[in-house]
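pasting for the record
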Amino acid sequence: MSDTLTVGVLLFDDVEELDVVGPWEALGFRVSQIASTPLCVLAVGPEAGVVRGSKGLGLVADHAATDVPAFDVLVHPGGNGTRVLVKDAAHLEWLRRLHAQGTAPASVCFGSLVLAAAGLLAGRPASTHRDYLDRLAKIDPSVDVRTREWYVDDGVVVTSAGVSAGIDMALHLVARYAGARRAS
């Protein structure tokens, strides 16, 4: 990790807005106010510019996925757009490449399905939205699906359950990178 903690938050068409904005607010505000390490939170999308969330909200990607700085953490939200991404070979390879370069993946809601499709949850404990637990197990039967945990951090990958659990996961990331006392 460099002198700056760099967190990427992924945007894509039909992303669940709260999966983006909840963690963004928790990370951006809490860490920037309390951490001794400077924080940079960036929005990344298939290309730079506006994407439309599942409820129609326009969100602006600062960077295209092909032109991103090194991230310490990449937050992969859920939303209807994951139905496409879970089958997108280029997207899955991009996630594997980031992970191999040292980026810690974190997912909100059924963003974990995409991480599983990329092979990043193989043999790991993970969570997702309660309505998608079976689908997560079907994508990769080696995943230790946690049915009652808001978020799961195995030290490498962090996953969270439904949309509001992404805020809890983000506060956990604050504790992980800035100290538990600073997350409260």
